[in-house]
Each structure stands twice: as structure tokens, then as C-alpha cells.
């Protein structure tokens, strides 16, 4: 007969099975309600992976629920008092009944939420508590079969109670024996094994990375992916997003921070005129100031547009290119042939910050994790391209569930969102690491798209991934070794040569794959009608010692521009010393691509003729760079822009 401790651990395991079964049954209900049978047929190869990851999510929830009962077992292990053990046993039984019923109700609420919003529980779930919940409850009562649903929940809850009673009764004999509280080596071993299993389930993984939201993506089908996570996990994710949600500020406090007397003064400074007047409709005036109208006067053929954000593509590391150490590799030729801006910075200092900035121009961090991601913003970069006749696609080797990218980008009206699983479905031979599909495969798929004959021009926004920790590179990548003494350069803050080697290899791999892609691209017909823009999403962050290196390089990334022959001008080459940042990319593209549309213009056209180079600036969230004589004026313009942009989005979000 089992002793008390073995019996209690067995009881926890049985309740774990109950919790997993609850999620399984609700998941079946979800499949019946929302997933057509044809989808299961089309994505049959993804179903085993979906089932495996679904089990990981369910076991993680069960492990969190098991923490308290396991602690109770540990208490009894030391106390070994039959009276205490009996009371704690009753507590465990009651505890599981309450939690299992709560998880069942939450799972069913999630299905109801999905039927209305086509999404699992997310941050908008909390709007229920903010927008007259009594009125919403009345609407639910009037429009849904509440009595039927409550009856079903009541029956299911009663079933859970009966099941818990049977589990508890099965363990009762062990608890009535004083000898059952004896601790021996077998008991200790059992507790240790259970503890290890508990930790693994809490982490959700035995691999490098713990279970995370990206693991809910197992295919290119939203319906299949939505089968994977459970309601408890999605509620936890929503609560985290709510906690990190940005807060709005009063106009008065913003005026004080940015040193303006009024919004009118800021508008005048930013637009360099006094023609836009605040006359009651603040939002309309801000839209006029921040947006630029493009008429339908284009005379040339619209080019395809490819924007590549290269992971950690550092500007400063280009300076370390020497005859002994080739840092540029395949990009050397293209950097000479085309336009290269070195006085350039990213706007944000992280991957998601840079993606959010070019996609939406929202000044608040973590926009993709906010409730506003479910609304198409007037500032979406996809809108002017769509209105100008383009198809718009975000394409990356990463799992696009990361940071809610797939969800947010679709609401920002991208025609397609392509990530790791779509690329793998299109090319099963593609290899990948823990971050995503290798970049050289990604560029192959981009070239395939550019080679297609399409009715509309294409706009693609690409994010690479391979040059990112943990720096897992293709097995067959061949790069000439860097001399050992190269790593002794005083510019490096990182002194561990093995760590440095990974960063340098990542940078060189990036240049090799970019160069290989551009070699093939320029030999293709697509080169006759495609603009290619490449920049780093942010600088490499941890290996450079900026006490030894000029601070201007700290946030610096290069900007490379390829223009098709019919759009080139000889004067463009003389403009590459201008200061700029990611905010200038859209303004530079607009004359080549847009027609009969409006777009949020937060930067300058880097290829505009008749403008003095010294009036350009580079605005990163941490530092502003410009010619010394123009620094103060540039700071004033950027302050005005940032103030107006914050007020614009606060008032825009207030309408949602």
C-alpha cells in the first residue's frame, strides 16, 4: 500500500490529468465550432506538432495549479502529524475542485470571446470591467441562451466535484494509517522526481527556451494555431500586456516637458509656417501637420519596394573592415555601387521598437502588446502603399507570433504576413535555428516573389533573424577565419574571444547573405523595377566600449539604397553625407512610390534636391545628431514633432 506522500503525489497527478482533460475537451469544442474539416486536411502535417505544443501549454497550467498542493506535501514531510495531514488533505481536494471549475469556466468564456472577436482572450477582455459591466451583462442575458449555458456549466462542475470526491476517497486509506507518514529513501526519491517534473512543466520545455507565445504558432493557418494555447495562458498574457500598457498624459504636462507654450507654437515650429490653425478640432489640425498629401501626378512606372531590416546590422563594425579581416564580404561591391548613408541611426533601440516604428509611427513602446493593435491606425505604413495600388507583405524567418506581430500587422492592413511556418510549408527543405529560418533561405523566397509577374507592384517589409543570439548558423556556412589578434582591439567591451567570435561571425554572415542576395537580384529582371532599402533594426549593443568609441556610433546603423536605373540621378551620390534615421525612410520612398494618398511623414526625403545638407538630422530616442550649427534648431523641431505625435495618438486612441 502507498504511504501518505506517495498517495498525495498520485492525487496531484490525477488532478493534473483532470485539468489536461478539461482543456482537451474544450479544445475539441473549439475545433468543432471554429475549424473547418478542410483545414485539418490541408494542415494534417502540422497537427502532431500542434497537439504536442497544446499539451505543453496545458501541463504548464496544471503545474502552476500543483505548486500549492506540492508545498502542502512538503509541509507534511517535515511535520508528520496525522491530524495536520488530514486537514491539509481536505484542503487539497477542495482546492482542486475550485480551481478545476474555474479553469472550465474560463475556457468556456474564452470560446465565447473568440466567437465575437475571432481571438482568444486578450487585453481587450478587460474592457468589460471598464465599460459599464452591468449593461454588458444585460446584453449577454438578452442575446445569448444564458440559462442553457449555465446549466451545462453546472452539470460539468458537478461532474468535476464527483470526480474529485472519488480521487480523494481512493487516497483515504493511506491517510488513516499512522505508518503511512513514515519517510524513507523511496519517499525522498519520489518527491525529488516529482519536483524535477514540476520544474520542467512550469518551464514548459527541456530545451534552450522556455514555453512562450511563439510556441502557439505551428503552421501558417490561424485556425490551427488558435487550437494550441489554452484560456489560462492567454489570460496570463493579457494581464501582462495590461500591466505594461502605456499611460496617457495631459497636454499641459507634455507642453511643459517639451518646452512649448501651446500646441499652436509646436505646430508652427514643426511645419515652419503659421498656416495650420487650431480652431476647435485639434485632431484635424494635428493630422494636417503630421501627414503629407501625395497627388496623383506620378509619371514613371511604380517600382516594387523592398525594405530589409537586418538584425543588429552595425554601422561601427563596418569601420573594422581591414585587408586582414574582411567584414563586408559580399556587400563590399554593392556598398560602392549604390547609395550608402553612414550618418544614420535607428529610431528605436530594439527589434520590436524598430518594427513598430516603421509600421505605425506610434510613440509609445510595445504598441503591438496594447489593445490598440486591433485597430487599423491612420499612420499604418501599409495604407499609403495599398491606396497607391501595391500589395503589402511582411516577411521574416521568425515565428510571427513573437510580440503579437502577426496579429498586429494584419490589423494594420498588410496583405500578407509570412513567417517561419509559411516559409517551411512553401519550402520544406529550409533549415532553421531556434530564432527562425536562416536568412539565406529567406532571401531566396524574397527573390522568388520579385521574379513573379504580378498585376500590382509589391511592397515587402523584411526582418532577418540569423544575426541574433544564440548565434546558431548554418552548418555549411563558409567564412574565412578572423585573426586571433583582431579581438584584442580596444573598441571591444567584451573580452571573451569566444563570445566576440559569435557576434563577428553573425555580422559577417549577414553581409555575406545580403551580398549573395543582391548579386542574384541585380542579375534578375526585378532589378529593373525594384527599390531596395536595407538598414539595421538597431546597433549591436553589448560588445562595443563607447568610452573608447565616439558616441555618435552608439545607436548607428547604415542605410543602403538601391534604385532601379530609371529612378537614378547622378546628384544622389552627393547626398549620402546627410544625417538621417529610420523616420526618413518613408519620406524618401514617397516620391517614387505613392500616388493619390496621405501618409504620416515624420522625417525628411534624403534624396531631395535643392535642400541644404546641413538642415538634416538623425533622431534616435536616446540621442539627436546633426551639424553643430544646426543642433539646437533640429532639437526644437524634433521636440515639436514628438509633442504633436503624442497628442495625435492619444486623441486617436481615445476614439477607440
Automatic annotation (TrEMBL):
Is Cytoplasm set as a keyword in this record? no
Q: For this UniProt record, give its keywords in alphabetical order, as a comma-separated list.
A: Cell membrane, Membrane, Transmembrane, Transmembrane helix
Spell out the InterPro entries in the cross-references. Answer: Alkaline_phosphatase_core_sf (IPR017850), OpgB/LTA_synthase_biosynth (IPR050448), Sulfatase_N (IPR000917)
**What subcellular compartments does it reside in?**
Cell membrane
Q: What is its main location?
A: membrane
Q: Which Pfam families match?
A: Sulfatase
List the record's Gene Ontology CC terms alphabetically: plasma membrane
Entry superkingdom:
Bacteria
Family matches, as SUPFAM superfamilies: Alkaline phosphatase-like
Q: How does it sit in the membrane?
A: Multi-pass membrane protein
What name does UniProt use for this protein? Arylsulfatase
